[in-house]
Amino acid sequence: MTTKLSNAQIAWRAAQDIADGTYVNLGIGFPEMVAQYQPPGRQAVFHTENGILNFGESPAEGHEDWDLINAGKKAVTLNAGAAFFHHADSFAMVRGGHLDVAILGAYQVAENGDLANWSTGPKGVPAVGGAMDLVHGAKRVAVITDHVTKDGKPKLVKCCTLPLTGVGCVTRVYTSLAVVDIKGRRFVLREKLPTLSLEALQAQTGAELLIDGPVADLIVPEL
Amino acid sequence: MDKTIGHLAEAVAKIGDSATVMIGGFGGAGSPIELIHALIDRFHATGSPKNLTVVNNNAGNGHVGLAALIEHGMVRKLICSFPRSSDPRVFTEKYLAGEIELELVPQGTLAERIRAGGAGIPAFYTPTAYGTHLADGKVIAEFDGQPYVRERWLKADFALIKAHAGDRHGNLTYSKAARNFNPLMCMAAATTIVQVSRIVEPGEIDPEHVVTPGIFVQGVVEVPDPQQEEVLNRAGAHYP
User: Fold this and answer.
1) Catalytic annotation on A49?
2) Residue A104 falls within a domain, yes or no?
3) Does residue A194 have a cis peptide bond before it, meaning omega lies within 30 degrees of 0?
């Protein structure tokens, strides 16, 4: 019995909402997995901040070209129809509203759509990269994340307590337990694991889950 | 017109103490390792340049290139978006010891500030960073009902650039995603020095394929078979 989705399964679920021909930016790390689970027959075009549209899979070990990397500085390959461009054009694509979807990780998402995903506080070396740009401009900003932190605290919260990446920017959250939309500054439950009661889900969520329309079963294949 | 320079040492000879230097590249891709190393050589020989302000997306990786420049104590301040890498020890230790200043800028804002500097636009408004710590103290204005943050242009005394082919006029092409910040930095520096894998005759680069027009370039030096930071780091290289 599935009690929680794996990262691969969360990525799979997010991939199902990406239509054919969509321009997509995947945040570095966990969100990169979404590319592996595109439904057959659909082809999204992936954008990377450092200046490539339509990059493909990683090359085989030993075949890396270090002029051909993604935002995570991993070696990639090109698909037919790829394009290179400089950084100002790359972020014009981001802020200019040309990207259809950005999928990012999160430390916290608030019910008003605020996102915290770049800093866990004043300790250490701060680093932001493109996260603050990506949350503005993509037509849809989705988050994929575990439903709770490693020590069991809610990541879907009333109000972010960690430094913000963006204000009111997230529209959908795919978690290890549920799919939640952000609408009218509220969490609206769309899907949940069939084995999980609404009460149990609510208990692991830091703000009220609104029911507005049907709540579907979140069913994901074993991966 | 001939902007070619014979030697790396000559190419970096005029960069003085306290200069602001933009260094192209995103991680290792497009990083002008040989120009950076020539600057380190000069520092070892003459004690100069020091107290540099460096603009780059990152803060170096391992002990070569930008990381080596920082490791040798030549950099007073770094303006970047992501001072982390697989091996960020050099910057991290200096930063936590208070020996280097950091101005953290969102990546798209960094690119646009550099572009604005090169385009003669002193400031612009962006949605990026609104409502976050990185907008603290900055002017906010509403346009069509949405809040935006005012950001200033960024200019430099010098830019150190890596390109693929260049001609005597300074027209440049790049290699794949090694383009990144390089064309923007060419525009934003008073003096732009470029290392290219190949110097070609004017006309050999199809005008349709020129990415950086030569007007933005002051010097071109040939470095055939340039080193890649990633390869050097995998071999555990230190410079010098």
Assistant:
1) yes
2) yes
3) no
Report the residue of chain A nearest B179, measured CA to CA.
A86
Q: What is the percent of chain B where pLDDT is above 70?
A: 100
- Contacts for A171 with CB less than 8 Å, ≥ 6 apart: A113, A140, A141, A142, A181, A182
Where is A175: in which H helix or E strand? strand A172-175
**pLDDT value, residue B120:** 98
CA distance linking residue A145 with residue B89, whole number of Å = 29
User: Please, is B50 exposed, middle or buried when counting C-beta atoms within 10 Å of its C-beta (0-12, 13-18, 19+)?
Assistant: middle
| In chain B, % of residues over pLDDT 90 | 100
**Which chain A residues are Cβ-neighbours of B176 within 8 angstroms?**
52, 65, 67-68, 84
Q: At how many degrees (to 10) do helices A87-95 and B107-119 cross?
A: 120
Residue A45 lies in a domain: yes
pTM of the complete model: 0.97
Here the ipTM equals 0.97
**CATH number of the CATH domain containing A203:** 3.40.1080.10
| Residue A223 within any structural domain of the chain | no
pLDDT for residue A1: 62
Is B132's CB within 8 Å of A127's CB? no
| Domain span at A117 | 7-217
Q: Is CATH 3.40.1080.10 what the domain over B4-122+154-234 is classified as, yes or no?
A: yes
CB-CB neighbors (< 8 A) of B98 in chain A: none
The minimum CA-CA distance between A165 and chain B, rounded to whole Å, is 6
